[in-house]
Amino acid sequence: QVQLVESGGGLVQAGGSLRLSCAASGRTFSNYVVGWFRQAPGKEREFVAAVSRGGGYADYSDSVRGRFTISTDNAKNTVYLQMNSLKPEDTAVYYCAATESAIATLRSLYRYWGQGTQVTVSS
């Protein structure tokens, strides 16, 4: 089992950047595919990005591809989401999640979830 804790959220102006962190305890991240999801008020939780075990492959939603980068630091047992060129529509609670399945965009395939961190982008 793995426990996940997100950090790094905050308030930023449009065009700015933030880096979210997802720290794991328990089993190491190398055993899991790790994803980031987000949920805006009144909307469904949606896939943002995911990285394979070991960090060799990543997948992104169309809405963030080219602006966000997911990466891993296995020594720190941490996964990052670097968010650049932020837009007001990126405002949401961002969640880190882990799955023992193959890399996936479906929320239902992720078994372990963090508590979320708020990202607010002002126009």
Key terms:
123 residues; four-stranded antiparallel β-sheet; mainly beta
Give structural notes.
- With 123 residues, the chain is an all-beta fold.
- The chain is 0% helix and 51% strand.
- The protein is globular.
* Beta-strand content bin: over 45%
Helix/strand-derived category reads mainly beta
Morphology call: globular
Distance between the termini: 40 Å
The residue fraction in helices comes out at: under 10%
N-to-C SSE string, H for helix and E for strand? EEEEEEEEEEE
Give the helices and strands, then pairings.
Blueprint: E1 2-7, E2 10-13, E3 18-26, E4 33-39, E5 46-51, E6 58-60, E7 68-73, E8 78-83, E9 92-99, E10 112-113, E11 117-122
Parallel strand pairs: 2-11
Antiparallel strand pairs: 1-3, 3-8, 4-5, 4-9, 5-6, 7-8, 9-10, 9-11
